[in-house]
User: What shape does this take?
Amino acid sequence: SILDHIPHLAEQLGVEFFNEKLLSLCISWLNDCVFSIREAATVNLKRIAIVFGVDWAKQYVIPKIAEQQKHRNYLYRTIALTMVTSLVELFSSSDVQSSLMPFVLILATDPIANIRVNSAKAINTVLPFLDTNYVQTTIIPFLADKLLSDKDRDVLFFANVALQTARKKQ
Assistant: This one.
């Protein structure tokens, strides 16, 4: 599909042309009604961030995560979490903590249980990229105070998994 070729096009055409002509199209795919398109869009944005760098991702992708996180449709809020877990390995731990984790922690208190489940999963995925001190002072207390008191069984399960992983990081 055309989606698969976008990162290569981005590399060939350069950042200025991409931002001007293709970025809005790539971003619009994050709100497609078909899940596989939204998922492919997150993969593409990661691949494009590899080509253009973390600073580009901070300038163009992080604001989109912020928009997605606030979207009224829970499916699009889920994509914000997918974007975070996709981008995490490109960022330094301090950037993960300051730029990406706030989205995960906010969505972990979402009214939709599926979003909270995915937030707990995202926390578990992101843990290896966080500083030990941040895990001790922010993540473990957050899991213990917020997610472990959740009424949903699945949220509790994945929060416990994340908490066990976080405690191993000590």
In short: Residues 44 and 148 are 34 Å apart (CA to CA).
